[in-house]
TrEMBL record:
This is Short-chain dehydrogenase. GO terms for cellular component: membrane. It comes from the Bacteria. Belongs to the short-chain dehydrogenases/reductases (SDR) family. One of its GO terms (molecular function) is oxidoreductase activity. The keyword Ribosomal protein does not apply. It comes from Microbispora rosea. Keywords: Oxidoreductase.
Length: 220
């Protein structure tokens, strides 16, 4: 049996991917901050759940202790930052520090904590990125900077850990609460649902290509 740990798994892409992996027979450990939604999702999927904040080192340690065997780590949990999205000239430095803590430092800390298990199984790391990491969208500078940093963290990890596959994926716009918070419910409602990108992610995990950055279009 294969084992996966998915962060941000109570809704959106994390939950959609968890459902697909559960259907494929994977053993799952799910985490997210929203305890009620997380526990409900885990019950429905027959998965284990450990609610908490991935930016909390103690929670990261508990997660790592809970997965002595690990084939796939999905760093999906992410923060958006202040809304309405501020221009960089107006971005509160403390808010940007907090966003880097959630979107960059926390995923790396979880990678560090689970690397022994991943190395043992020659597992894989899937970091969820964004087109904001490489494009200049007004108002998206803070969020985009964190995703650009996560991309480079992934890139270097791939070079340093040859026995662990590392992919960083831009799934494109999806109909999620985060997108609605950023652009409004009407525009977000026109985006495809998270479930639509899951088949591409399953192909990625199943085919185990060379490490690198992938877009949704490249995977379909």
């Amino acid at each position: 049996m294969k084992h996966a740990l998915i962060t941000g798994a109570s809704r959106g892409l994390g939950l959609a991917l968890a459902k697909a992996l559960a259907d494929d027979g994977w053993s799952l450990l799910l985490t997210a901050r929203g305890e009620e939604d997380l526990m409900s999702a885990a019950f429905d999927l027959g998965a284990r759940a450990l609610p908490g904040d991935v930016a909390d080192p103690a929670h990261v340690a508990r997660l790592a202790d809970s997965v002595p065997e690990l084939d796939l780590l999905v760093n999906n949990a992410s923060g958006l930052g202040p809304t309405p999205l501020p221009r960089l000239a107006d971005y509160p430095p403390d808010a940007l520090r907090a966003l880097f803590e959630t979107n960059v430092i926390a995923p790396l800390a979880l990678v560090q904590a689970t690397l022994p298990a991943l190395r043992k199984r020659k597992g894989a790391i899937l970091n969820i990125s964004s087109d904001a990491a490489v494009e200049a969208y007004e108002g998206w500078g803070g969020y985009g900077a964190t995703k650009a940093a996560l991309d480079q963290v992934s890139n270097v990890l791939a070079a340093e850990e040859p026995d662990v596959a590392v992919w960083w994926v831009d799934p494109g716009e999806m109909r999620t609460r985060m997108l609605a918070d950023a652009v409004g419910p009407e525009e977000a409602g026109a985006a495809p649902p998270p479930e639509s990108v899951v088949p591409a992610l399953l192909r990625l995990v199943g085919s185990r290509p060379a490490p690198g950055r992938f877009t949704r279009g490249a995977l379909e």
